[in-house]
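Morning F.,

Quick status update on the modeling queue. The single chain you submitted on Monday has been processed. Sequence for confirmation:
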Amino acid sequence: MGNQILAAATAAKTSTSSSSSLLLIVLVFGVLAVFMFRSQSKRKRAAQNTQSQIMNGTRVRTVHGIYGTIVDGDDRNVLLEVSPGVRIKMLRQAIGTIVPDDEPDGLNPTMQAFEDTAADGDTSQSSSANAEDRSDLSR
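Structure tokens below.
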């Protein structure tokens, strides 16, 4: 009789232990799912907010890094002028951010500082590299 009680107590501990472990795993996955859905909806809301601010004349950067000005658009597409006379039609969802008017197109401030430093210092190697870079861009 004592062995049966001991066996029943051991079985109860094992089932309680495994069910609490299972509950803990389910709880951890539940918390992870909540955080994933929350961050995803936050990103979606931010993208929709950016999309709603787009109007003609707005300077933008696409998700692929193309800078331009919105010339025309509808609910689905926009016409983006990337250079004087060069316009491309793209989906409105491809607009990544609105660029402030005081930010230059595609120039990183640290690159300008690097070029200024290179002009002041040893330019024997960097000036030839910059000349080659400029020649490739002008073609």
